[in-house]
Specification:
The complex is a heterodimer.
Chain A lengths: L1 H15 L7 H11 L26 E14 L2 E14 L3 E5 L6 H9 L7 E10 L2 E2 L5 H7 L4 E4 L13 H12 L4 H14 L5 H4 L9 H13 L5 E5 L7 H18 L2 E6 L2 H7 L2 E6 L2 E7 H6 L4 H8 L40 H5 L5 E4 L3 E3 L4 H7 L5
Parallel strand pairs in A: 3-8, 3-9, 6-7, 7-8
Antiparallel strand pairs in A: 1-2, 1-4, 4-5, 9-10, 10-12, 11-12
Helix pairs in contact in A: 5-6, 6-8, 8-9
Chain B lengths: L9 H5 L7 H11 L1 H18 L1 H4 L31 H37 L1 H15 L3 H12 L3 H28 L2 H8 L4 H9 L4 H24 L11 H4 L3 H4 L6 H28 L7
Classes of the chains: A alpha/beta, B mainly alpha.
Chain lengths: 391, 300
C-alpha cells in the first residue's frame, strides 16, 4: 500500500513538472537534490526549508484563501466570524490554524467546503483558490465533486460523525462508488486497504461492524480513512483529537502525519492545542477574533513569537522543563464580542503591550522577520526584545 | 495519571457482544408485552387466512345460491348465508384480502411518503420547510375520512384509487411526526460529514437520515394499519369503497344486512366482529411496539 501510494503521488508530481521525467530512481535522486530551493521560482523562495526529507522544494500552492469574510446574521447583529483572512497551504504541507474557541477556525474550514449553515451564515467576500479555481464561484454540482473527492474532511467528534445505522463498510465504500465510480467489489477491496492503512486490524470483519462496536480512537481512524478514501490532495482536520484521550491523540496525530507524508496529502489542522502544532505542523496561522494575528513556521512561532496573543498562549501552557510550582500565566479578560469589534486591535483590551495607537488603528499583517514571519502588531519590534524565547 | 489503565486494549473493549437473534427479540417481546403479542398473533393469523383464502374458504365467495338465502348458521354454512345465498364465512375469509391489501398498501405508502417529506422538510429547513409544513397543515385541517371520501369521489372507486385515497390523508400525519425526529438528526455531525463527503441531497435524505428515523416510522406504520382498515371498511360501507360483488367487510354490513338485521343478524354481526377484531389487534400491536421502541412516546 505505501509503495503504491508513493508511486501514485510521484505520477501526480511528474504530471505537474514535465522537467522531472526519467526512471523512478533517477527521479528520486533528482528530487532529493532539489529539496530546498533548487526548482522553486524566486517568488516562493522566502520560506526557509522546513524538513529536509520532504518534497516541499518542488511543489507549489495548493490552496490559497484570500481576504475571506464569513459573516453570520444574528439577532444581536452581524457576527464577523471570519473577517478578511488570507492564508495558504502548499502541496503536501501541514498547516495549523490555532486560536481559542470562537475565533473563526472552524468557520474557516467550513467556508472552504462551502458548508457554512445558510441562511444565517454567509461567505460575503474573498476568494478560495484551490488548484487555481475559485471554489466560491463553482456551481453547487461542481462543488459537490470537490467535496470528498479533492478535499477530505475529518471532524471533531468521532462519536457522532459516523452514522450509527450504517455499517463501517457501507460508509467507507459509498464515497468510492460515487466519486471514483468503483464497482461495489472494487470499493470493498479498497475499503479493506484503507482500514489496514489507518491501522485497524482484521479489516474484513471490521467492515461488517457498526460504529458502536468501534472505540473512539478507532472511529477517528475510520474518519481519517473516509477522508483519504478518494485520494484527495487536501484534508481539513477540524480539531481531530479534541474528543480523544491524550494517549490516543498522539497515535492519531502520528498516523495523520505519517499518511500525509506517505500519500503527499496536504493537511490543514485546526486546533487549540499548541502541543499538536509544535509537533506536527510545518507552518502556523494564529487566529484571534476572526483575523490572523501571526503566521510563521512552527519553529519560529515557538522560538520567537512576535504577537502578544501568541506569547500569551504559549505562556499559558504548562511546561515539563520548568519547576512544578511555576505559575501559569493566563490571558486576562474575555475574547471580544464579534458583533462589536473595537476600532483598533481586537486584542488591545487584553494586551500587556498595548499602546495608545492600538486602540485607534488596527495593525495590518506585516513582515517582522525574514522567512515569511508576519505579525499584526504595532509593537512587534518591542516584543522581540521583551518576549523571552519560549523554547 | 499513573492510575490510568493502558490504552492499547481498545479493540477488545470495542468488540461488543453480538446483537440478539430475532428469536430472542420475539420471545422478549411476548414476555414483556403479552397484549401486543396477542395482537401480533391475530395479525399473523389474518395474514395466513388471507394468503390461503382459496384453500380454506369452503365456498366461492361470489357464488349465489338462491335456494339457500338468509340461511342461519348451520353445519353447511358455519356463519350462515346472506341475501343472495352467498356463504358469509367464505366472504369474510376473502374479505380479509381486501382489508389487508388496502390496509397495508395505504399505511406503508402513507408512512413512507410522509417520512420522506418529513425528513426532507427537516433537512432543507428554511423556506422549503415552511412551505411544506403549511401545505401539510392544509391537509391536516380535514378529518381523515372527509379527505378520503372526497378523493374517492374524484378518482372513482377502484382498489388502487381506494389505497391512494387513504394514503393521502396519512401523509401529513406521518410527515409531522417524522419531521420532529428528523430535526434532531439534522443536527448530528454525521449529516454534515455526509455533506462534506460530497453526497447529493437525495442520498443524504434517503440513505443517511431516513434509516435513523426507523423507530418513529414503524410506530406510525402500525398506528396507521388499524386506521386504514377501519377507513376502508367505512368507505365500503358508505358505498364509496369496494364494489359488489367483491367481498369486503364494510360492504357486507350494508344493503341487505341492514334490511334483514333482525331476521338474519349473522349477516351483520360477523363482518362487524372481523372489523373490530382486526383494528383492535393492529392497535394493540402498534401500542406495544411503540412502547418497546420509543418509551418517550408512551401515552399518559
Amino acid at each position: 500500500m505505501p509503495a503504491l501510494a508513493v508511486a501514485r503521488f510521484e505520477r501526480r508530481l511528474c504530471r505537474r513538472n514535465p522537467v522531472l521525467g526519467g526512471g523512478r530512481k533517477e527521479r528520486a535522486v533528482r528530487r532529493a537534490t532539489t529539496v530546498g530551493r533548487g526548482a522553486k521560482p524566486p517568488a516562493e523562495c522566502d520560506e526557509v526549508p522546513l524538513r529536509g526529507a520532504t518534497l516541499r522544494g518542488v511543489v507549489g500552492t495548493l490552496l490559497e484563501v484570500r481576504n475571506l469574510q464569513t459573516h453570520f446574521a444574528t439577532r444581536g447583529g452581524v457576527v464577523r466570524a471570519v473577517d478578511g483572512v488570507s492564508w495558504d497551504v502548499r502541496e503536501g504541507e501541514t498547516v495549523a490554524l490555532v486560536g481559542e474557541s470562537g475565533c473563526g477556525k472552524s468557520v474557516s474550514a467550513l467556508s472552504i467546503m462551502r458548508l457554512v449553515a445558510a441562511p444565517a451564515g454567509r461567505i460575503v467576500g474573498g476568494q478560495i483558490l484551490f488548484k487555481g479555481r475559485d471554489l466560491l464561484r463553482l456551481g453547487e454540482e461542481e462543488m459537490r465533486r470537490v467535496r470528498g473527492r479533492e478535499i477530505g474532511m475529518v471532524f471533531q467528534e468521532p462519536m457522532t460523525s459516523l452514522n450509527p445505522v450504517l455499517n463501517i463498510g457501507r460508509q467507507l465504500t459509498e464515497g468510492l462508488e460515487i466519486h471514483l465510480k468503483l464497482s461495489p467489489a472494487d470499493a470493498r477491496r479498497r475499503a479493506e486497504e484503507l482500514l489496514a492503512m489507518v491501522g485497524i486490524s482484521d479489516p474484513g470483519r471490521r467492515l461488517r461492524q457498526y460504529p458502536h462496536q468501534f472505540s473512539g480512537g478507532m472511529r477517528q481512524r475510520m474518519m481519517i480513512a473516509m477522508a483519504l478514501a478518494c485520494n484527495p490532495s487536501l484534508v481539513l482536520a477540524d480539531e481531530p483529537t479534541t474528543a480523544l484521550d491524550v494517549t490516543i491523540q498522539a497515535q492519531i496525530l502520528e498516523l495523520m502525519k505519517d499518511l500525509s507524508r506517505r500519500l503527499g496529502v496536504a493537511m490543514l489542522i485546526i486546533t487549540h492545542n499548541l502541543g499538536v502544532v509544535a509537533r506536527y505542523a510545518d507552518r502556523v496561522n494564529v487566529m484571534y477574533a476572526g483575523r490572523i494575528v501571526e503566521r510563521a513556521t512552527a519553529r519560529e512561532v515557538y522560538g520567537r513569537p512576535r504577537h502578544p496573543y501568541t506569547l500569551g498562549l504559549l505562556r499559558s501552557v504548562p511546561r515539563l522543563d520548568e519547576p512544578r510550582r511555576a505559575r501559569l500565566t493566563p490571558i486576562e479578560g474575555q475574547p471580544p464580542d464579534l458583533t462589536r469589534l473595537p476600532p483598533g486591535c481586537a486584542f488591545a483590551p487584553r494586551c500587556a503591550f498595548c499602546v495608545e495607537r492600538c486602540t485607534r488603528e488596527a495593525p495590518p499583517l506585516a513582515e517582522v522577520d525574514a522567512g515569511g514571519h508576519v505579525s499584526a502588531c504595532w509593537e512587534a519590534a518591542r516584543l522581540e526584545r521583551v518576549g523571552e524565547p519560549v523554547r | 495519571m499513573a492510575l490510568n489503565p493502558p490504552i492499547d486494549r481498545a479493540p477488545e473493549i470495542a468488540a461488543a457482544p453480538a446483537p440478539d437473534g430475532w428469536l430472542t427479540v420475539v420471545t422478549r417481546f411476548c414476555r414483556t408485552r403479552p397484549l401486543g403479542a396477542v395482537g401480533a398473533a391475530v395479525i399473523v393469523l389474518m395474514l395466513v387466512v388471507a394468503a390461503l383464502a382459496h384453500v380454506i374458504a369452503p365456498y366461492d365467495p361470489v357464488a349465489n345460491d338462491f335456494g339457500g338465502m338468509l340461511a342461519p348458521p348451520s353445519r353447511a354454512h358455519w356463519l350462515g348465508t346472506d341475501a343472495f345465498g352467498r356463504d358469509v364465512l367464505s366472504r369474510l375469509i376473502y374479505g380479509s384480502r381486501t382489508a389487508l391489501l388496502v390496509g397495508f398498501g395505504a399505511s406503508v405508502l402513507g408512512a413512507t411518503l410522509g417520512s420522506v417529506l418529513g425528513v426532507a422538510s427537516a433537512y432543507f429547513g428554511g423556506r422549503v420547510d415552511l412551505f411544506l409544513q403549511r401545505v401539510m397543515d392544509i391537509f391536516l385541517s380535514f378529518p381523515l375520512i372527509i379527505l378520503a371520501l372526497a378523493l374517492v369521489a374524484i378518482l372513482g372507486n377502484t382498489i388502487p384509487n381506494l389505497i391512494l385515497a387513504i394514503t393521502v390523508p396519512m401523509i401529513p400525519r406521518a410527515a409531522l411526526v417524522i419531521r420532529a425526529s428528523a430535526l434532531a438528526i439534522r443536527e448530528m455531525p454525521y449529516v454534515d460529514a455526509a455533506r462534506a463527503a460530497g453526497f447529493r441531497h437525495g442520498r443524504i435524505i434517503l440513505r443517511h437520515m431516513l434509516p435513523n428515523v426507523m423507530a418513529p416510522y414503524l410506530i406510525m406504520l402500525t398506528a396507521f394499519l388499524g386506521q386504514a382498515v377501519l377507513l376502508e371498511s367505512s368507505l365500503s360501507f358508505l358505498g364509496l369503497g369496494v364494489q359488489e360483488p367483491m367481498p369486503a367487510w364494510g360492504l357486507m354490513l350494508r344493503g341487505a344486512a341492514v334490511e334483514f338485521a333482525e331476521a338474519a343478524p349473522w349477516m351483520a354481526i360477523f363482518p362487524g366482529l372481523a372489523i373490530s377484531l382486526s383494528v383492535f389487534a393492529f392497535n394493540l400491536f402498534g401500542d406495544s411496539l411503540r412502547d418497546a421502541l420509543d418509551p418517550r412516546l408512551r401515552t399518559q
